[in-house]
Design goal:
single chain, Arc Repressor Mutant, subunit A, elongated
Length: 110
Amino acid sequence: MDIEPKNVSLQELRERLPDEEIQYDLAELFKVFGDSTRVKILFALEEAELCVGDIAELLNMTQSAISHQLRVLRQSHLVRCRREGKAILYSLADCHVRTMLDAGLEHVEE
C-alpha cells in the first residue's frame, strides 16, 4: 500500500509532529523490538500464555536469559504477568502489541 505525500508547509509540518518527548518514547519502544530474542518471546506470547521455563525451553535458552528479556519487555509495557499458584505466567500486554508485531511482519514480508 503506497502512501501519497502531502503538500504542507514547513510550519504546518512542524505543528503536526508529535512532541519531542513522545518521539523519544516511541524511539525507545522501537529499540525494544531491535533484539531478536525479545521478538521471539513476543511471537511466542502471541500464541500462548507461558512461564519462564516454557519460554526458555521453546527458545533453547537459559531461564536467566529469558527472565532478563522479560524484564525489559515488562518495563516497556509490552508483556504482563500474573501468578497462578507458584507459577508466573506471561502474556502480551494488550492488542496493540499484537498489532505492532503483525504490522512489522507484514512489512518485512512485502
